[in-house]
Amino acid sequence: MASASLQHIEKTPGVCGGRARIAGHRIRVSDIVVWHEKRGYCPDEIVEMFPGITLADVYAALTYYFDNRQEIEDDWRQAEEAATRAEADNSSKIPTELRRRKPIDHQQ
Question: Class of 3-90 per CATH?
């Protein structure tokens, strides 16, 4: 990690799962990337959403992502797999016959 990134990005075991995050915050690099790359927010808009971070923090997070793309994408994949496992392990408590009911037609 370049020295500029070191002052803006940190990884601490036990904080945000040890994932890369904005130094001094619980905002992960992957969060910044999603807001910027996937949802189309510009860096200024991200700073407005989180006044405690700076424009330099946002750009450092994006730089970290482009320098460590596989790490961040692996984090996303692991999170998705964990969500899928959790969903499979937590079946609905609503009885099947109630879940498959047809909606009530109020126009009759």
Answer: mainly alpha
